[in-house]
């Protein structure tokens, strides 16, 4: 069943609510066939060999939530390959790696739209009979008679506001701080046949508020080039291969390690080269980037940041599915090396009441195995982080030996009208000692903005020296509505190390005990139609007795994201 908009998106921009919010996602029509697997939900289907179908209360339901460890804010997840393929979906055809939200293809998750717009493929709109949306004329503009050359425009405007009772555990800002931010990302994708394409994207952002603080380049950005690259594609050694050269997003890593700074305001951008190859069940990706210096407060003044580097390799295998009761589970196994070099506050080490400034070069050797079935999903990953730290003042070198473990698993009761998911998330990030300035460093760091809502909606706690355990409950009572509840409990992995926030270690003195606190939190996602999403987050950080005695404060947090995309 294909569901159309009740009102055009222009009315939404004028503030008129849609009459039929069920236009959340374009659904496949497989359930119309009485012989399809959707019409016979008890039939055992190998999801790696044929189309998956999910039937809930007699209808197919595309879900708003994502596979574990994905994380586009407000992006609906498509659960069947049928919904990934034109004219129901816009992701490129990467074979088995197109499954789920397509995260395993290496270009980031794709709902109706992608976190990386260049991961979308709108070429099916070459057939004008498939146009069913106000913005379709902008998604495929033929430049040649046969449509082999075409242009696609993309856009996103996001309005975000948030308020904090005790910002950063009471260490920054003023009580009751409230802030507002706007971000615009608009781009063009030029395809010159099947082998060459150029992509460009502009960005600008601004912020204001009351009792505000920290309106730096994370939140404010004059108009500049966010992405600009050329991609060359061909077939090589029986694989779909490509080379991407220029400024670009990079999302081929678990989002709890590295993400695109999606929730704050100004996304990350990398400069360099990336090559990929995709076989039927194996995918490889190699890359070498340097960062982008966005500190200049002028238009089109971004420069290459040669002091920040990111490079590595990712190999993903799609193993054959396996049975779990009456269902079969399809999964992916990632093996990766993610290496980086960074300085500044991201590399600084706490030492007693001071901070040791320097530069760190680290290598993450790790794996992630993730997948699911209609009633079950899971993700488990681990890594070892080696490398070194060089102290700025003396040039002293110290070795790094750290590790991390991340897992989530849960059950989904698909026959229920609420479509509930009940799971458990567990995370461990090693700690070291902030009481000595020599020897091996054991504190794990993730400097490139891992998904902010993965651990803690408030973002007050960073993935360093941390043990986290949380129940997860998601409800999807409608295909346009999703609710999620979490309540992570936090401990320090090492009581000899500090509590860490996104800007480094907190300077709490006389902190005793390992327990840090508990953060009950909830999120509500409304996929109002194909173009408009509203996501709200609420949380209460309840600090432990030891944290509050050391100077930390408890407080409430609220965030709203109102996003328009085309």
TrEMBL record:
Domain of life of the native organism: Bacteria
Q: Which UniProt keywords apply?
A: Signal
User: Which segment of the chain is annotated as a signal peptide?
Assistant: 1-23
Alginate export domain residues: 150-557
Return the Pfam families for the record.
Answer: Alginate_exp
Question: What is the organism field in this record?
Answer: Asaia siamensis
For this protein, the record's InterPro entries field holds:
Alginate_export_dom
Q: What is the name of this protein?
A: Alginate export domain-containing protein
């Amino acid at each position: 069943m294909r569901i159309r908009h009740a009102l055009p998106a222009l009315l939404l921009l004028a503030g008129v609510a849609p009459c039929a919010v069920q236009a959340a996602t374009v659904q496949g029509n497989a359930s119309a066939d009485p012989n399809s697997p959707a019409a016979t939900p008890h039939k055992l289907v190998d999801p790696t060999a044929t189309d998956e179908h999910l039937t809930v209360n007699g209808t197919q339901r595309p879900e708003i939530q994502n596979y574990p460890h994905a994380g586009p804010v407000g992006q609906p997840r498509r659960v069947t390959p049928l919904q990934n393929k034109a004219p129901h979906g816009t992701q490129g055809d990467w074979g088995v790696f197109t499954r789920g939200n397509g995260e395993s293809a290496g270009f980031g998750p794709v709902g109706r739209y992608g976190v990386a717009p260049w991961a979308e493929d709108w070429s099916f709109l070459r057939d004008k009979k498939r146009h069913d949306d106000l913005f379709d004329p902008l998604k495929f503009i033929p430049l040649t008679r046969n449509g082999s050359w075409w242009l696609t425009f993309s856009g996103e405007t996001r309005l975000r506001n948030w308020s904090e009772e005790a910002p950063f555990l009471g260490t920054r800002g003023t009580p009751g701080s409230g802030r507002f931010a706007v971000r615009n990302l608009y781009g063009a994708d030029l395809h010159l046949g099947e082998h060459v394409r150029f992509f460009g994207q502009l960005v600008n952002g601004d912020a204001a508020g009351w009792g505000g603080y920290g309106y730096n380049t994370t939140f404010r950005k004059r108009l500049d080039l966010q992405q600009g690259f050329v991609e060359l594609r061909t077939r090589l050694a029986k694989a779909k291969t490509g080379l991407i050269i220029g400024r670009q997003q990079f999302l081929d890593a678990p989002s709890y390690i590295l993400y695109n700074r999606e929730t704050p305001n100004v996304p990350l951008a990398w400069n360099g080269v990336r090559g990929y190859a995709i076989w039927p069940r194996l995918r490889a990706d190699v890359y070498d980037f340097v960062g982008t210096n966005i500190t200049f407060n002028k238009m089109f003044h971004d420069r290459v940041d040669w002091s920040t580097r990111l490079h590595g390799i990712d190999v993903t295998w799609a193993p054959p599915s396996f049975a779990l009761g009456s269902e079969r589970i399809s999964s992916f196994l990632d093996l990766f090396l993610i290496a980086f070099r960074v300085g500044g506050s991201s590399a600084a080490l706490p030492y007693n009441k001071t901070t040791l400034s320097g530069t760190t070069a680290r290598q993450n050797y790790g794996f992630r195995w993730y997948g699911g079935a209609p009633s079950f999903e899971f993700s488990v990953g681990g890594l070892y982080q080696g490398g070194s730290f060089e102290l700025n003042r003396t040039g002293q070198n110290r070795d790094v030996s750290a590790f991390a473990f991340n897992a989530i698993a849960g059950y989904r009761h698909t026959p229920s009208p609420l479509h509930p998911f009940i799971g458990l998330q567990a995370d461990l990030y090693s700690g070291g000692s902030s009481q000595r300035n020599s020897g091996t460093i054991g504190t794990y760091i993730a400097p490139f903005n891992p998904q902010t809502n993965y651990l803690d909606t408030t973002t007050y706690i960073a993935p360093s020296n941390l043990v986290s355990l949380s129940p997860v409950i998601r409800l999807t009572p409608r295909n346009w509505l999703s609710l999620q509840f979490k309540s992570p409990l936090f401990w320090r992995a090492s009581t000899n190390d500090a509590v860490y926030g996104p800007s480094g270690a907190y300077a709490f003195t006389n902190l005793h005990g390992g327990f840090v606190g508990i953060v009950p939190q909830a999120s509500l996602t409304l996929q109002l139609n194909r173009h408009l999403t509203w996501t709200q987050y609420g949380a209460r950080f309840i600090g432990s007795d030891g944290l509050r005695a050391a100077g930390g404060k408890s407080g409430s947090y609220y965030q709203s994201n109102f996003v328009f995309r085309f």
